[in-house]
Each structure stands twice: as C-alpha cells, then as structure tokens.
C-alpha cells in the first residue's frame, strides 16, 4: 500500500488518504415512536478502523443494516465508496453488498459444510469456478492461521477458530469494508485478544477499512483508530480513541469506560462529603506526555504535599493516558493552587469531595 502511495503526486496522495469508504449524512430511521437513528452523520476513511460503541438499544444494529442496504433510512444519505445506496433496488444493491464483508457474534457458519466450503461460499454465489474458489479459500485460511482445518466441520472448532473462519469468509470476495457486529462478544478475553490482533493485522496488511460495532470499550481500545459513541440514535461523541479515553465528554462514554478506567476505591467514595473534611479528593485525568513527565514530583515541589490514593497510567494508541486520585489539604489557598498547577499541566481535575485526613 505504501509503495503504491509513494508513486502518487502529493495532491493525489492527499486525496487517497482522505477518501471515504463510508459516508452517512443525517440518516434517520424511525420505528413507530422510536427514533432508532436520529440524524447520524459519519465518515470512515480508507484503511481506518472505526469503533461504534453504544448501549443496548442505542441504534447500532439499525446503523449496520443501513450500511449494508438491509434497512432503508427514512431520510438522509448512505454513501459506500462514493455511491449513494439508500434508494437503490435489491438488484442494484447486490454488487455493492459484495463490497462489504460481515462478521457476527455467533459466527453464522453453515454446519453441514466444511471450513473451506464455508469460506468459499461467497465466491460460489458469485459464480467463481471450483478450483479458483478452493485456491482462494486455502489462501484465506492461511491468512487466518487455520490451514490445517480446511476439511473440518464447524462443530469441531473452538469459538475463536469459528470466528477465524468467519473472517476468512468475509474476506473472500475482497471487500472494501469489513463490518464487525459484536464479533468478539461471545468469546473469552484471551480469544478476544487473538481475534482483535488478527483484525488489526488484516487491516495493516490489506489496508482494509473496518467498522467495529461493540458495547465494549476494551475492544475499541485494542484496535480502533477512532470511536463514535451512539446513544438514542445520535452520535453523542466522536474522536481519536486516546482522546475519548483521556477525556470523555458524554455521560455514555464515561459510563462505558467505567469498567476499564481506575475508579475511586469504594471505601473512600462512601466517606466523601461535598463540603466537610480536612482533605479534598481530586480526580486527575491526564493524557500525552504530561502523564509520563514528573507530574507528581513537580506537584509536591510546587504546590505542596499530597496523598496518592489510587490510580494508574495505561497506553492507548501508544499514548499515555492516566487517572489519578489524590488527596490534598482542603484549606485555601492550597487546594486552588494544586488545581491550578494540575490544570496548567494539561490535566482535567475534578474535586470529588472531602474526607477527614487518613480516612
Ligand atoms: N424492526 C423494528 N421494529 C421496532 N423497533 C425497532 C426495530 N428495530 C429496532 N427497533 C428499535 O430501535 C432502537 C434501536 O435498536 P437497535 O437494534 O438498532 O439497537 P442496538 O444498539 O443494536 O441494540 P443491541 O445492542 O441490543 O442489539 C431500539 O429501541 C429498538 O427497540
């Protein structure tokens, strides 16, 4: 891919880099009084991995169905590779659907067919000859690390292996876009990691554009470049994954992040008072180099003593993202000075409440 891009003039490179594989404009779809999609606008660039995350009932499935033409929006536009598809008939949709590969939570393999037959099925439907189908299936099974299972039946495979077959099948017709609909939700954490690693490898090797629909932030964190948070049919937040992790703006994103960001220990949370106490408890969210730098040493030197209550720094998209809970003297001007120092270093600071020292 890079070699190819290298042959282009700078302005062509720019155009190729920003080419949208998917573009939704103000898409609306109602079911009775429910607005399943309430004006969704989104675009996904070539080679990008976009995570779409939301709680149950947020509108994720309806969005997917609009993307592959199974659902028609009431209004708005759905562009796939530059072509508006929302008003096309079934016949015109067929070739466009082949540009989209799909993987599912429950794999959707045909149990009476072997692994290689499952993988080759989309090509059979396209009328590709048997020898070519099997050649391509072998190539894809090699890509997903399952060459030795070509003649096996799905029942003899583990969940992770079934999903690898699902991925190989989704890639058979060389799609421009891979839609992953909760593809790891039925898998254990270790298998989930291996499937996500495989998807990232495929994205890099083939330059494949991927949309991941999920309700798990961990999935988004592992491999997505960008995330869109959907709630009640609207995109309520969108941005680089590390930014949303570092400083979530919406209540939904904050709540979806709860399980994977450090939280204030229960016993301290239970003692917090809005006003009373000798020690203020701060939540400090930091991202980028500020999190790696000697933030706490500088804080002690500049603003005075503090107590490190809890927290941690992890890496998201290669950047440090941290959440720290600190206890500092409640009195003024100490508290204001501490908050000022931290915000001056680019941190987001929230005074959660007060406790009596060493509570
Ligand atoms: N065919 C339908 N008829 C009536 N209501 C529907 C239909 N499809 C979706 N809805 C409603 O639209 C809203 C969005 O549903 P959708 O299935 O898109 O959400 P979701 O985010 O995929 O949820 P989940 O994660 O539980 O699958 C929900 O309130 C749902 O009840």
UniProtKB/TrEMBL annotation:
It holds the Pfam family ABC_tran. The keyword Acetylation does not apply. Gene3D superfamilies: 3.30.70.260, P-loop containing nucleotide triphosphate hydrolases. One of its GO terms (molecular function) is ATP binding. It comes from the Bacteria. GO terms for cellular component: plasma membrane. InterPro entries: AAA+_ATPase, ABC_transporter-like_ATP-bd, ABC_transporter-like_CS, ACT-like_dom_sf, MetN_ABC, MetN_ABC_transporter-like, NIL_domain, P-loop_NTPase. Keywords: Amino-acid transport, ATP-binding, Cell membrane, Membrane, Nucleotide-binding, Translocase, Transport. SMART domains: AAA, NIL. CDD domains: ABC_MetN_methionine_transporter. GO terms for biological process: amino acid transport. Residues 22-257 form the ABC transporter domain. Part of the ABC transporter FtsEX involved in cellular division. Important for assembly or stability of the septal ring. Belongs to the ABC transporter superfamily. This is Cell division ATP-binding protein FtsE. It comes from Aquamicrobium lusatiense.
